Amino acid sequence: MSKSTNAIPASIAHALLQNFRKQFPVFRDAQPLAIGIDKQIIAHLPDTDPKVLRVAMSMHTKSTPYLRKMTKAATRFNLDGSAAEELNESHRSHAAAVLAERIKRNEEFEKARREHESRVKREAEEAEAARLRAEKINQLAQRFSRYGC
Question: Do 54 and 66 meet the contact criterion of CB atoms below 8 Å apart?
């Protein structure tokens, strides 16, 4: 099978994630999730498609709010909101590194966007100045052509 036939549409995973956020405060509050929370979800919602669940979990755990909470938290949480295991320092460090890289990429993108907008504005101003010069030259040419010069 080709990759596209196995792909889970993001909209389906996003809808599942929205449902989790309504049902479970740990998702809504972006608290660090217990290792193996997918098993807790399947036990609580047995009709959940595991493939869709994996995509939804990936979306959630890669989100900026989740990564921010991961960098500051000391504990992971179960689906019911109870404390699970301690948050490993390497997981906290990884979240901080991913977040720092994301911030750097966003800053680079914003800088490129501002430079592009500045360049477009400058080119538009130059084009307008050229149009005004051409208009002035045409006016002068018409004025002097009337007098036979």
Answer: no
- Token pair in block for residue 46: 């047995």
Selection from 75, 90, 16, 76 nearest residue 47 by Cα:
16
Share of the chain above pLDDT 90, in %: 86
- CA–CA distance, 88 with 25 (Å, rounded to integer): 22
| 29 CB-side CA count, 13 A | 13
CA torsion angle for 73, 55, 84, 31 (degrees, to 10)?
30
Is residue 5 over pLDDT 70? Answer: no
* pLDDT score recorded for residue 2: 40
User: Which among 76, 75, 73 has a CA at the least distance from the CA of 34?
Assistant: 76
Which residues pair with residue 33 across a beta bridge?
77
pTM as predicted: 0.70
Asked if 53 and 16 touch (Cβ cutoff 8 Å), the reply is: yes
Question: How is residue 130 written in tokens?
Answer: 């050229």
Neighbours of 49 (CB within 10 A): 14
